[in-house]
Amino acid sequence: AKRVYLFNEGSKDDRDLLGGKGANLCEMTSLGLPVPYGFIITTPTCREFFESGNKLPPLLEQEYRVALDLVEKEMGARFGDPENPLLFSVRSGAAVSMPGMMNTVLNLGLNDEIAAGLAKKTGNPRFAYDSYRRFIQMFADVVMEAGGEQFEHEIEKYKAAHGKTLDTEMSAEDWQEIIRIYKTLVDFPEDPFVQLKMAIEAVFMSWHTPRAYVYREMNNIPETLGTAVTVQAMVFGNFGEDSGSGVAFTRNPSTGEAQFFGEFLFNAAGEDVVAGIRTPLPVSELKVRQPQVYEELYKTQALLEKHYRDMQDLEFTVQEGRFYMLQTRSGKRTGRASVKIAVEMVREGLITESEALMRVSPEHVEAFLHPMVDPAEKTNIVATGLPASPGGATGKVVFSAEEAVEVAAQGHSVILVRRETTPEDIHGMKVAAGILTELGGMTSHAAVVARGMGVCAITGCSALKIDYAAGTATTKEGTVVKRGDIITLDGTAGDVMLGDIPKKEASSSDDFQTLLSWADKHRRLKVRANAETPEDAAKALELGAEGIGLCRTEHMFFEAERIDVMRAMILSETKEERQGYLNQLLTFQHDDMLALFKVMDGLPVTVRLLDPPLHEFLPHNDDEMAALAKRIGKPASKIREITEGLAEVNPMLGFRGCRLSVVYPEITEMQVKAIISAAVDAIEEGYKPLPEIMIPLVVNVREIRLISEIIDRGIQAVLKEKHVSVPYRIGTMMETPRATLGADRLASEVEFMSFGTNDLTQMTYGFSRDDAGKFIPQYLEKKLIESDPFVSLDQRAVGRLMEMAVDESRARNPSIKYGICGEHGGDPRSIQFCHDLGLDYVSCSPFRVPVARIAAAQAKV
Ligand code: PEP
Ligand code: MG
To answer: Could you say which protein family the record assigns here (predicted)?
Structure first.
């Protein structure tokens, strides 16, 4: 097979064969742009190289020498000819852009004789010897792996000895002296063809550097892909004052404005612009000094953007007044810019709405919803944990919920730092600007609640050791963060920083709303929110939720004035005593539900029956028990006795979920009465409530039947008195492996099902949700798992259970509605999977609703 392609022999569709860089150079050549000519050695040649024990195929050199002859003709210069020398750049380039591989070698083809020839030909010895010393330096560093610092060190030494500080003060003779020194440091090959061969081998070898390997692992790039080698004629921006180098963007990469934007340095090589040693000029300066070059550049950028139909990042060089294009690629951009560019390109007729949707990543969307730590300003990172809830926040460190409330009341922004959080910390979490925990994974209490509130959070930050008594958190390196210190959290990355790090404020934009409206038009999956309070529900609605997919009723009982009633109910010793408290709870629950139905007028609200183990509501220590005893008029000893009776060795697998309904049907009945009576009242006030009652954590069909009877009892009790028809539904959750394996039987008893993938993942893996934060980071680091299964759905096993459940359920009950309300419902990759599974909706925290809308559209288009 052909192993070498000239730039006019390929196109942008040849990425796999020629690498991204090579394919782009071919494309630009065929567009008629002034690209310095060259050739590409294919990626299959890289595979051949490895298969034959790191040896170039025997006929390769012959083949590239033929190509090289043609490049010489095109460029009017000759490789290895001191009279009229042609120099090359040599680069690596895989099908996907891959940092970690070999950097570029520039000016390849120079030696003592040719450098002298170049000096003579150009009449610019300083330029010739500067190029030569740069080449030796790069070649030694990148190809011979001789280490780059020693060369810089020699230059520093030389400058110091000769009273010079700047490169511009170095004469041709100075550089010649430097070259003589360099040659004592490395065994540099003088033969240009040997240089070229060594560089090609080095490019292939760089496929296997540890950095490249890690990058491929992280990004699922196959090992077998291999890299191409691009060999391109050099042009020089540092030839003199009518030469220069620049980079440009076809639109502003930071704001997205459709405005050509770039920087240029006269008499400088491309790397000088990137290195930022001298301050570049705006490209508009070219308009003044070299108008015809500017004209050509401007036309070229417009052509390239139109051709690639995306914002381009270009590199160009001017040599003696002649314009050359070196590279074009899709430009990196901020979240705001990405949305603006996508929307405007649709208006300009450049791309379709579907294409615009695919151009925006979920991370891009976050910038519109949360203040973000400015990446350019990030410093003082002292610890890194799990990125549990996105956004950035700065505040004073507090170590308890009480302290959080107190310090916040004084008008300070606070960061609540806890080993872990429990429902009792809610009041502190509500006032916190950010939450940081030492323990807990991505579905821990802290993570779930923070995401629900849209507050930035980092969990599982095991690099911090928290000492409540001392009021300190100590990092692995020994930095001590004290109570009252100012810290900044980057919940998007998981980084904890000392001090106040600047942030970019969130704010929506018309373009963002336009993009979301396109997403709604294109998606099939519905998007609901997990929310309990009217405030959260209103936020969810504003962000585009089409219903509530999970209202965790237990959250409604943690409010200060209710928790004692809840506790008294749990601690009741007789049915009558319990009923009294249940009646009080019924009032609370009714009022909450009514408020929720009003906000979600005309939209479904899935209300889940009480789920957590009851001891989660009870006090944990003597002081709290004594205080509670006073408040509810029950002896502390009795409280202790009952609390101890409810304690469990393994609460997550214990007395919770629908098991509570089995043992305490009266609690369930109360909840149902509250839901239905609230719906009746809402209807009477002219609203359209659509309650859906959801039974959690079932394992078999008899549970559903038993609990359905209790639910019916509750409903009848309400409707007997009020003659209103309430359109309710009864459904269940798929949270245990056993439920998914018998889904067909369960499906015939209910109207909807919702995957509780937090519990389903916990039980499929046998990884405790609340403790997994202790070992998941190690699992990731040691590559035992690809990603945290509590963040992104494990499609292989958990996904397989889901698929079986959906297929069997639908076979038995074709009209059943299927959703997901675990944390995965807001994860773009998992949303794609749910779309493919054919679910009807996903439900996620309010602040993830926009991301889910876009992800659902991306899954479809
Ligand atoms: C789940 O298990 O996925 C779920 C949504 O319920 P919870 O997180 O409340 O256990
Ligand atoms: Mg659950």
So the answer is: Belongs to the PEP-utilizing enzyme family.
